[in-house]
UniProtKB/TrEMBL annotation:
Domain GIY-YIG: 42-143
InterPro entries for this protein: GIY-YIG_endonuc, P-loop_NTPase, SLFN_3-like_DNA/RNA_helicase
Organism, as annotated: Lactiplantibacillus pentosus (Lactobacillus pentosus)
Coiled-coil regions listed: none
Pfam family, one: GIY-YIG
Protein name: DUF2075 domain-containing protein
CDD domains given in the database record: GIY-YIG_COG3410 (cd10439)
Amino acid sequence: MLYKLLEENIGEVDPVVDVVPYDTSYNTELHNDKTNKKLIFEYPTVYLIYDKLASNRSGSLSKFKVYVGETNDIQKRTRQHLKADTKTRTDWKALRSSSGAEMIVIGDRFFNKSLTLDIENKLMMYLLSADSVSQLNNRRTNPQRAYFMSDQFENIFGRVWQTLRAKKPDIFPDKKEIENSAVFKASPFHSLNKEQRESKSEIFEKIKAALRKQSDIATESGTTIFIAGQAGTGKTVLLSNLFYDLTSSDLVRKNSVYLLVNHEQQKTVYETIAHKLGLDHDYTDIVSKPTHFITEHTGKEKVDVVLVDEAHLLLTQGKMAYQGKNQLEDLLKLAKVVVIVFDKYQILTTEGYMDDAAVRKLEDAAEQQGNRIELTHQERMVADQSTIDWLRSFAIDGKISPIPDDSQYKLQIATSPEQLHAKIKALDGFKKSDGASLARVLATFDWPYVEKRKPKDDDCWRVKIGSWSLPWNLQIPLSRKEKRKNKGLAWAEQFQTINEVGSTFTIQGFDLNYAGVIIGPSVKYREGKLIFDKKASKNKKATNQRTWNNKKIDVSEELLRNELNVLLTRGVHGLYIYAVDEQLQQALLSAAGNQHILR
C-alpha cells in the first residue's frame, strides 16, 4: 500500500535543484534554502560541479567541463573536493581557482543510495553525449541492479533531467536529442544486461589470467578473446564499457590499453568519447585504426590490451599503407591480449575476406582456450523475435515468407522510392523539428560513386531510379559554418543527410530509429530465392576477385549478401523497403499483404 502511494505521487513533486557558487560560500548558500533543508542535508543527493570553458569564436555554443557525483553528506563531500582533492588532481584545482564555477545539488524525497548511484551514472551517460559538454571529469561507473524503487527509476530520472534543463538549458539539452546521438549509443555508461555483465566479468578474468602468463617476447603470439554476436546484440556497448573500465584498472599498466576500429565514422565516435573523458590526455592515439597502430607499435614493447570493434573489417591482405598480410595476426604480435568483436555476416570487402573455414579456425582456437563469448540478446531492434527471424531469413537465407505482425516494430514495403523518402522525412521531422532524428534512407551500392571526384554529367554522385534521385552520402556541399556544426557527428546525425542516401560505408556500426532501405538491382528474386548479381553492383570492394589460399576466387555473392544484411538491421523501431528488381518488389508486396504495405 505504501509503495503504491509512493508510485502514484512520483509525478506530482519535482526534485529540488539548488544552484550555488562552487567556493567556500557553498554551505551558506545551501542553507538559505530553508524549505528543502532536510532533503539537501539529510537525504542522499546527486551533485554536479561545472565551469564554462573559454571560447575562441563569438556566437559559438557554450562549452562546459562537468563533474558528476553522489553523496550521503553534501557538506563533507564538498569540503573534500575544495581542500583534499585540489592537492592531488589538477582538474579539481582548476575548478576551485575559477571564479565562475558552480555547483548544482539535487535532492528528492524518493532518493536512496542505490537510486542516487544510478542517477549519477545516467547523468554521466547523457552529459557525455551532450554537445555542450567538452570534458566529463569522472573516474568511475556505479550501475546498480534491482533495489527499492528501481522500477520507477526512469520516471524519477526524467523529472530530474527536466528540472535541470529548466534551470540550465545551456548545459542540459533536450533528452531526445541526446538519445539520438551516436556517442550516446556507444557510451560506456549504459547499464549492461545480464548477458553483457556476465560476459564482462568473464573477459576481465580472462585478461587477468592472460597477462599473468604472457611475456613481452615479440615472436610470441598474444591471447585472443573472441566476442561473437549478430548485428544489434550489444557488442559495441560491451566493448566501450570494457575500454573505459580497463583504462582506470590496476589490471593493466598505465597507457597500455588501445581501442581500434577500421571504420572512419565509428573511430570518430570513439575519439569523441575518449577525449571528453580525458582518456587521450597522455596518449592521443588511444583510439585509432589498425594500420596506424601496427605502424606505430611495430618494433616496440608489447602493449597489454588491444580492443578491436568491428573486427570483421580487419584486413586479411595488404592494402596501400598496410604492407602486411593479416592485421589480426600482426596485432597479436604487438599486444599481450587482443579482444575482438566479430560477426562473419558483416564482412563486406574482399580485402577483409575470410572463408567459413578460417572463421571457424579462429573461433575454435579461442573456444579451446575458453576465450569465446557469444552475445545473443537483441539490444538494437525493439521487435518481436518473429520479425528478427524474418529479416535474417530474408537477408541471409534468401527466403521471403509472409511478413509477421508486430505491435512494436514497423516493417513495411514502399511502392516507390519517392514514397519511401517522404516517409523517412516525415518520421525524421516528427521526432525532432530542428535536425536529424536518426531516420535515414540507405541503399545497396548499385549506383556509381567515386570519392574525391565529380561525375562528368551531374553535380554529384546520385542514386537514380526513373525520374527520382538523391545524392549519395557525403555529397551535399556545406558552408564552413555548417561543417563546424557537423564536426564530430556521424553521417546520420548531420542535418543535411536526410536528403542523401547512406551506404554500408557510412552506416555500419550505427543505429537508426527508422531505416528506409532501397535494394538496388544487384539483389534479384528468381525461382523463389534471392540471387546476387555482381554485374549490377558498383561495389568493387565486394565484386573484385581476391587471392585466397593461392587461388583467385569470386566471393561477391557472400559479400553482397552481407551488405544487404547490414542495411536491413539498422532500424531500432522500423524498416521500410523498396526493391528495384521487379520480381523482388512483387514478392515483397505479396509477403506484405494488406497490413505491411506503406500507404
